[in-house]
Amino acid sequence: MARVIKRLDEPEDEYTKGWAKYMMKVETIYKKARDSRIRKGTMTLVIPAVDLACKCPKIKANKAYLFLGREKDDSPTANLPGIIGVTQHSIAHEWKSEWDLRMRRFRRRARKCK
């Protein structure tokens, strides 16, 4: 779960041309691989500008989102540290506070192998 802080209006470089950048704060990581580059704290989120034009996903500042997807995908930033790419293979869903207890329960069940 991550909270989007603001949209970045930085000059585009060769990796992120045609992609919108957001600053986000990763608050909770529910599942990740051992060699994952996702860390708690501030990270950059990149979304294709084409997807923002059709408002899917509709990303708003100061809102929390649950991001689901593969870490190593076809985004131009797949190998860059500190940057997460959201593509057509990812899901970005606005976080609801009542999901927190549900996610804790799922993690507890996974630890107990039920």
UniProtKB/TrEMBL annotation:
InterPro entries tied to this protein: Netrin_domain, Netrin_module_non-TIMP, TIMP-like_OB-fold
UniProt-listed Gene3D superfamilies: 2.40.50.120
Record-annotated NTR domain positions: 1-113
Keywords of the record: Disulfide bond, Secreted
Any one annotated GO CC term: extracellular region
Protein name (database record): NTR domain-containing protein
Subcellular location: Secreted
Classification lineage: Eukaryota, Metazoa, Ecdysozoa, Arthropoda, Hexapoda
Protein's organism: Oryctes borbonicus
Chief localization: secreted
